[in-house]
């Protein structure tokens, strides 16, 4: 055996069948998994070595058919067919509880002549429901090797590795789909003309009606005529009906069901969790618990981190030689980075709860619940996946809109998703809420938790309101319906999700830390130097902060931001945070450390006691609410802008989004401050 011979395989299946879990277990990767459709919206790759053979595993987005109706399915179809020469075969994953749905895509791939190994995953879930599957007969009927797995328990994974190692991929010559008589002559001529080795490839090329793997940009789809797709759609429906008739015959012979007299836990829970009234009540209660935990559980680790950075700043200030380097490190870099790191526990707690909800299967219920709520606003249930993902970061959330078939609903979701409160806003909200909201409780729940939950709900409500207005200006024909299977509830992988959170928090710290490091140096430089007092002196060093070049720049924009209640330091923070929202906190930490010679004092205490020249508190209640609303609405993330343009291919909509959100942030903040001051 030749050592280190690399082999490539594809991991394929419907959404929500455990495909990403199989991928992670095979390759020991940390790709995020979630128990609802739409988590994987781009292909991922990983490697493992088995018996000296290196295998590359490509995890393709989940799909229901080879005919793409959304951007992620287009990625799947294009890779599956265009890259056949590069991979050894397909490992296809069926979920035991949804064999009928999964066999449609399986048969299409099989008819394309692609070698396959079949996995039946989570067979224990079927057995609990009294469903018995004759695997031996199933394998003989399909003419393919079948491996039973339970990916979460790592059962059957070694059998998959062994089958891949032994090249047990099966390619069938017998087609499961027969071309309808009325199209047979034309399909045969088309196959001969294009050199296809079977009729199904010719049928598929006709049924696609477009280039394989091409969905087009959002703008292209909006401009396309629906009439162009009528004939291909009709052929696809015809094929689907015939294939399901064939699948029904197969399943009738291999599945037997015992009568179920006992209601299972999933059914019991769903009576409440998807109830048209209690479902929403439970969802709000879960959110409230999460936000209470964000403040309560994070209190001690945040205090430890804050004390550590205060000690570090004091230590460097005392032990480094006096001069610019001492000032830069102890008053600039350390406070700036510490101002971001201190919020890592809150971000981690929030993400951990979200991962547990996704992993358990509850998020699929949220999609179902929200479909009814979102329809009147021009969105559908699948829009909630990007909206919920947006509470972590808007960038993957915007990318996940590829799972939305209807182009109008997809564009609307892209435009309003940045209103959702992302983890970058959390440090801003936390520090401002800490400044203006008291430590009291209501029914045992902290006021701060209630306000934080209010900010998240505000982002969601503004997203809906914006969508309801924008839907009147975005024209697109066609109506969509949400069709989805609700998966069984599953025990979350607590340890795995915790590792995922640690990775995400570290990514946040290192990503934000790089920006804060650069911004801290720039701010320190501009604050350390200022115009000289003497006529022949252009630059003076170690000037008072109020006389620095930074202060001159900040005071230059004060007339613009004064109606919002902001002083020049807050203006500098807002300007720097246009790179990324969380930079506001790092900037304020640096500025208040530069202004105060007591590094051991916490930044929030320095901000709390700061006053304007007229004696008014800088961070009054009115100013604090104004800041919260500004960051709730403002589009302050260059990376999000880039991904919005990449997904829409439209400067018009990207520019409109920036102007709309920033303009709304400015005017709402100004009005609220003027009312409350």
From TrEMBL:
GTP binds at residues 13-20, 59-62, 121-124. The chain crosses the membrane at residues 277-298, 333-357, 377-399, 411-437, 449-470, 508-529, 618-644, 656-676. GO terms for molecular function: ferrous iron transmembrane transporter activity; GTP binding; metal ion binding. SUPFAM superfamilies: P-loop containing nucleoside triphosphate hydrolases. The keyword Iron applies. Pfam families: FeoB_C (PF07664), FeoB_N (PF02421), Gate (PF07670). Keywords: Cell membrane, GTP-binding, Ion transport, Iron, Iron transport, Magnesium, Membrane, Metal-binding, Nucleotide-binding, Transmembrane, Transmembrane helix, Transport. It is a multi-pass membrane protein. CDD domains: FeoB (cd01879). Mg(2+) binds at residues 24-25. InterPro entries: Fe2_transport_prot-B (IPR003373), Fe2_transport_prot_B_C (IPR011640), FeoB_GTPase (IPR050860), G_FEOB_dom (IPR030389), Gate_dom (IPR011642), P-loop_NTPase (IPR027417), Small_GTP-bd (IPR005225). GO terms for cellular component: plasma membrane. Probable transporter of a GTP-driven Fe(2+) uptake system. PANTHER family: FE(2+) TRANSPORTER FEOB, FERROUS IRON TRANSPORT PROTEIN B. Belongs to the TRAFAC class TrmE-Era-EngA-EngB-Septin-like GTPase superfamily. FeoB GTPase (TC 9.A.8) family. This is Ferrous iron transport protein B.
């Amino acid at each position: 055996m030749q050592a280190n011979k690399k082999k490539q395989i594809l991991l394929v299946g419907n959404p929500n069948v455990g495909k990403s879990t199989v991928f992670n277990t095979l390759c020991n990767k940390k790709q995020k998994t979630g128990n609802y459709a739409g988590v994987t919206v781009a292909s991922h790759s990983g490697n493992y070595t088995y018996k000296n053979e290196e295998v590359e595993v490509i995890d393709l987005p989940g799909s229901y058919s080879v005919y793409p109706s959304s951007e992620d399915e287009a990625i799947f179809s294009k890779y599956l067919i265009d890259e056949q020469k590069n991979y050894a075969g397909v490992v296809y994953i069926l979920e035991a509880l949804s064999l009928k749905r999964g066999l449609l895509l399986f048969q299409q791939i099989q008819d394309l002549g692609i070698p396959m190994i079949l996995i039946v995953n989570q067979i224990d879930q079927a057995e609990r429901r009294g469903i018995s599957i004759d695997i031996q007969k199933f394998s003989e009927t399909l003419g393919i090797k079948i491996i039973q797995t339970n990916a979460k328990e790592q059962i059957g994974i070694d059998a998959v590795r062994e089958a891949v190692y032994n090249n047990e991929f099966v390619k069938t010559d017998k087609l499961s789909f027969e071309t309808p008589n009325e199209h047979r002559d034309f399909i045969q001529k088309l196959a001969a003309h294009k050199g296809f080795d079977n009729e199904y490839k010719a049928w598929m090329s006709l049924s696609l009606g477009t280039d394989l793997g091409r969905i087009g940009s959002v703008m292209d789809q909006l401009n396309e005529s629906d009439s162009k797709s009528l004939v291909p759609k009709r052929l696809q429906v015809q094929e689907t009906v015939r294939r399901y008739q064939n699948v029904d015959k197969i399943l009738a012979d291999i599945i037997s069901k015992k009568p179920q007299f006992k209601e299972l836990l999933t059914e019991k829970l769903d009576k409440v969790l998807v109830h048209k009234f209690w479902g929403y009540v439970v969802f709000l209660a879960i959110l409230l618990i999460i936000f209470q935990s964000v403040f309560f559980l994070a209190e001690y680790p945040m205090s430890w981190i804050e004390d550590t950075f205060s000690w570090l700043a004091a230590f460097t200030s005392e032990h480094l030689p006096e001069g610019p380097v001492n000032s830069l490190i102890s008053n600039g870099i350390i406070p700036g980075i510490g101002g971001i790191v201190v919020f890592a526990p809150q971000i981690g707690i929030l993400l951990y709860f979200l991962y547990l909800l996704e992993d358990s299967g509850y998020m699929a219920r949220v999609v179902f619940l929200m479909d009814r709520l979102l329809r009147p606003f021009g969105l559908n249930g699948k829009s909630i996946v990007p909206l919920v993902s947006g509470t972590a970061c808007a960038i993957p959330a915007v990318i996940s809109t590829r799972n939305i078939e209807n182009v109008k609903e997809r564009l609307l979701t892209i435009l309003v998703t940045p209103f959702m409160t992302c983890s970058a806003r959390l440090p801003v909200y936390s520090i401002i809420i800490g400044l203006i909201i008291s430590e009291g409780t209501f029914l045992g729940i902290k006021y701060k938790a209630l306000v934080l939950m209010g900010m998240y709900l505000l982002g969601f409500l503004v997203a809906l309101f914006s969508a309801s207005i924008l839907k009147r200006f975005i024209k697109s024909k066609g109506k969509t319906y949400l069709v989805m299977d609700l998966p069984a509830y599953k025990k979350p992988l607590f340890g795995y999700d915790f590792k995922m959170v640690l990775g995400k928090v570290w990514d946040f710290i290192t990503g934000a830390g790089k920006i804060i490091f650069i911004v801290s140096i720039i701010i320190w430089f501009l604050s350390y130097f200022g115009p000289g007092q003497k006529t022949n002196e252009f630059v003076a060093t170690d000037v008072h902060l109020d006389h620095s070049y930074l202060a001159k720049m900040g005071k230059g924009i004060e007339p613009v931001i004064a109606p919002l209640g902001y002083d020049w330091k807050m203006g500098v923070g807002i300007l720097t945070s246009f790179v990324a929202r969380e930079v506001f906190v790092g900037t304020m930490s640096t500025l208040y450390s530069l202004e105060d010679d007591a590094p051991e004092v916490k930044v929030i205490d320095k901000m709390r006691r700061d006053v304007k020249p007229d004696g008014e508190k800088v961070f009054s209640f009115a100013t604090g609410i104004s800041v919260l609303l500004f960051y709730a609405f403002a589009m302050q993330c260059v990376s999000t802008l880039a991904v919005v343009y990449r997904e829409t291919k439209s400067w018009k909509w990207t520019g409109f989004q920036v102007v709309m959100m920033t303009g709304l942030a400015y005017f709402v903040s100004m009005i609220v401050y003027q009312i409350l001051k």
